[in-house]
Amino acid sequence: MANANAAAMDAAGGIGESKLMAWVRANLFSSWANTALTLVVFYVVAKAVFFFGSWGIFNAVWIGTSAECRAAKGVGACWALFPEKWRFILFATYPFDEQWRPALSSAIFIGLYFFSAMRANWNLRLPIAWIAGLGTISVLMWGGVLGLSFVPQERWGGLVLTLILSTFGLALAFPLAILLALGRRSHMPVIKSMCVVYIELIRGVPLISLLFMASVMFPLFLPEGVSIDKLLRAQIAIIMFAGAYLAEVVRGGLQALPKGQYEAADALGLSYWQATMMIVLPQALRLVIPPMVNTFIGLFKDTSLVLIIGLLDILNAAKVAVADPQWRGFGPEAYFGVSLIYFVFCFAMSKYSQRIEVELNRNKHR
Amino acid sequence: MAGQSAGSGGRNDDNAMRFSLSDPTFRAIFWQVVVVGIVGFCGWWLISNTLTNLATRGFTTGWAFLSREAGFAIGETMIEYGPQDTYGRAVLVGILNTLRVAVIGIVLATILGTLIGIGRLSKNVLVAGVCSTYVEFIRNLPLLVQLFFWWAMFQDSLPGPRQAIEALPGVFLSNRGVKIPVPADHWIHAWMGVAFLAAIVASYFMARWARVRQAATGEQFPVLLATIGLLAGGPLVVWLIGGAPVTMDWPVLRGFNFQGGLTMTPEFAALLVGLVTYTAGFIAEIVRAGILAVPNGQTEAASALGLRRGPMLQLVILPQALRVIIPPMTSQFLNLTKNSSLAVAIGYPDLVSIVNTTLNQTGQAIEGIAMIMAAYLTVSLSISVLMNWYNKRIAFKER
Amino acid sequence: MKTKALLFASAFVAVAASLPAMAQQTATSPTLDAIKARGFLQCGANGNVAGFGLPNAQGVWAGLDVDVCRAVAAAIFGDATKVRYTALTAQQRFTALQSGEVDLLVRNTTWTLSRDTSLGLEFTGVNFYDGQGFMVKKSLNVKSAKELNGATICVQPGTTTELNLADYFRANNIRFTPVVIEREEENVAAYLAGRCDAYTTDISGLASVRASRTPVPADHVILPEVISKEPLGPSVRHGDARWGDIVRWVHYAMLEAEESGITSANVDSLMTSTNPNTQRVLGVTGGMGAMLGLDNKWAYNIIKQVGNYAESFERNITPLGIERGVNNLWTKGGLMYSPPIR
């Protein structure tokens, strides 16, 4: 639909006034009802644009103190919050002088995403890059070696925490998901039913309940004297959660694979694991890259829930930033800023997933 | 795969008595025993740790706390509740609050999502553009951020109750929520409810009769109009018979707050608006995909038959699109219900929020979390069952 | 069986402890051993309330509760900085202690019977006597909590505060609508935004909020009614009585120091004091530290590095505009009383 419109627009732009008018008439004012609809929507959009322009741009306080912001409250936005608070929102309580470390770690994460997005890298280079990247990030974040001072996990926060929770969540949920998906497709009744129960149980409850469980129940599961910290507990809950959803995605790929592939593998005399590793999984996983990216988008958004158990992810950092009595009441601005960051990540990924889907479909039809 | 080879285990007949890993049947059993053993061991380890911890740390366990006095108040309740009631009743209040926001949310999100989904396919570029922007925007932001945004909007932008905005006569907007007048309690209301239920039953039979008649004679009957008439008319007639009581319960500013009328608190409003707008973004995509899944030939055939756009949608496109729409829609409904648990972050007393308080007061974490999980699982599974049944009903019937 | 053996052991220990020569061999505490092996004390604190527990922008923690953690670290290691803090929400605090995530919980937590028993905690004393009150906007013209009929009140869920609130309104037969928000700063934000007519928590908390969170503190009044007793104190896990002793006596040492006039400024010069009590407290004589399983200079280290109770109070609580009141020493009309260190 959107493409058709774009094409129509290109054509109209190239040919001239009368065609443009015709296009406008055909698309916006084809009937009385359509005209009325156009006018109403146009009015609402214009109103919103006008409001946002005056509140968010022309009357906004871009640089200044909280007092100036307070004076403009209700009329203009207070973007002056960000020059003051951006470091806290991005890095939270990480030691101030060491904040280049989470900054660099975030950059490595983003680099890894780009690297993985390129199809030319879909080979052995990919796991190597990931191991190297995640290793570097661990060294940077913890420190304690190479002259970097040690920073305990309690002080990690901000954007890098969001990236850690979602990326490690997906990376570690992946093997779990494959096992669960294979188990659910297995013909061994006990294994199958265990996988079904796990998947349905986890998918049937909200992530919050798992995070609560991680927060208040995990400590009871462990023997006396062993305790794992809050961040790791949340990470485990997220992996358990992502594993169940990802398992369903992988299962979709396994089901979509033509039966002939399984039969061919059997005919070659391959064992179950040989067939799975060499024939089934490589094809099935390729089929489910788009839904996998979508799962990752969901996970990326869902990591914001860790604020409920008191972790300082980027959203929580923004909340704490506006709890400062000086900047109280500028919540909408803070949320807008954080939204922008989430949006850039999620939008880029969703566009990527759509493009890959088109490419894969093209290959299928060839 | 394992199962397939297990099925063709016959070729190993000659050495079937030998327990060997190369025998598929034996191998299947062997692996299942191994996995059960591992999972069982882990489970046993966790449970024994937990029991030891509970014993050594002097925890109280069990469900006895449910019948103890809760002692805390709850801001909004659908049933009578006070601090002197039990924890059990408090949890019930929480479940009802969750169901309330979930049910209203599902209905509104479906309506909004369908409108936007159809809007994205509109020939009007402006409408299509606005709908597309909406979907892209809403879907790519965490729900929690959106909830906080709405909550901050309601809390910070609206005036206090003494400066409340009177939007319509008797409708007050303030940071204590929206106050609307409702008819004062009257015995006739119960009978109007009965009339409404009767109207639903009557509509069902009327629709069946109309279908049979149309099949037999080809005459159409305006079912939709008649149904609306029945549903609205039935209670109206009862109301008139009852003497048409018009006493209203008006919200009045008394002391600190408005008294009387119906309240929608900012927490409930923020949660509802957040859930509806977020889920509508996903539903819109499902509806769009469903409509696009109907082959063009169907539309062309329908117009060749001379159907106008309205009947075409109703009789040809929608029934087919629904088959594609229902399964993903079910999971969106479930998502909305599960997402309503984010209420705890903005202070709406839903199930999670109340169990959270209970768990804090009693220290019984295991029981509390078990209750949350059990409640959501029950809701999830019932919605699944219901939607599966509906899905089967409307599934493509091959004749 | 086990309890009997334990009773016997503790009786034996008590006898043994009265003989200074044998005090060196007192039973050890597993918690203390773990802390020593780890090299730092893991302390559960609030992280949100100025005056009790709040990290500054550099991540350095300060507050009356935090000083208890520092004093315990000073007593164990001779170094008050060997503490790591875990910021805990009201919900997480008890599990964190029970699970061993923290060695010690000092998070303005009220000592109640049910917490002492069914939660498996052991409160070691009271470092701040508090009571619950209400704060309202001055413009509402409310003079007493009894005038709050029909009010909307912001309260933190899962606290004794929430229960006392309901009790008080029930007892006075007046109605209220609660708005419960888990996080303190959001609760305050909701109150300031006018979502609630009143905000309720411990009076110290109200004072802290009024002093540090409101744009104009004079616009808010704390109502005169104190509706509950809130003895706030440190707690440890059940089952390690010796660890409980250490935490208990660290607090008493700070009280005793105030009573004896020992401060961080004069502690070095008082090491040569001839007062037998001072000598015992500072570990010059008596071997009190060894009885606790600590260095004999334990109290000296506390006073030198953290100060006595009065110093801690003046550093943390006085800036909030709270008087000593009931938190004064018993000799000055308050409730703070240390059993003798001897």
Description:
The complex is a heterotrimer of chains A (366), B (399) and C (342). In chain A, 75% of the residues lie in helices and 0% in strands. Chain A has 366 residues and is mainly alpha-helical. Chain A folds into 2 domains: 2-71; 88-94 and 151-365, MetI-like (MetI-like fold). In chain A, helix 11 (230-256) runs antiparallel to helix 14. The longest helix of chain A has 35 residues, at 331-365. Chain A is globular, with a radius of gyration of 25 Å. The two termini of chain A are 24 Å apart. In chain B, 67% of the residues lie in helices and 6% in strands. Chain B has helices at 2-7, 24-56, 87-120, 125-139, 143-157, 188-217, 223-241, 266-293, 296-304, 309-339, 343-346, 351-362, 365-394; strands at residues 165-168, 171-174, 177-180, 182-183, 248-249, 252-254, 257-259, 262-264. In chain B, the strands form 3 sheets. In chain B, strands 1-2-3-8 form a 4-stranded antiparallel beta sheet. Chain B has a two-stranded antiparallel sheet with strand order 4-5. Chain B is globular and about 75 Å long. Chain C is of the alpha/beta class and 342 residues long. Chain C has 2 domains: 24-129 and 232-332, Periplasmic binding protein-like II (D-Maltodextrin-Binding Protein, domain 2), CATH 3.40.190; 132-228, 3-Layer(aba) Sandwich (D-Maltodextrin-Binding Protein, domain 2), CATH 3.40.190. Chain C is built from 14 helices and 14 strands. Chain C has helices at residues 2-17, 30-38, 64-77, 93-98, 113-117, 160-171, 184-192, 203-212, 241-260, 267-270, 276-281, 288-292, 298-305, 309-316; strands at 41-45, 54-55, 61-62, 83-87, 104-105, 121-123, 128-130, 132-137, 151-155, 176-180, 198-202, 220-222, 230-232, 235-237. In chain C, the strands form 5 sheets. In chain C, strands 10-9-11-8-12 form a 5-stranded mixed beta sheet, sandwiched between helices. In chain C, strands 4-1-5 form a 3-stranded parallel beta sheet. A two-stranded antiparallel ribbon of chain C has the order 2-3. In chain C, helix 3 (64-77) crosses helix 9 (241-260), helix 3 packs across helix 13 (298-305) and helix 9 (241-260) crosses helix 13. The model of chain C is unreliable at 11-25 (pLDDT under 50). Chains in contact: A-B, A-C, B-C. Chains A and B meet through helix 3, helix 9, helix 10, helix 13 and helix 14 of A and helix 1, helix 2, helix 4, helix 5 and helix 10 of B.
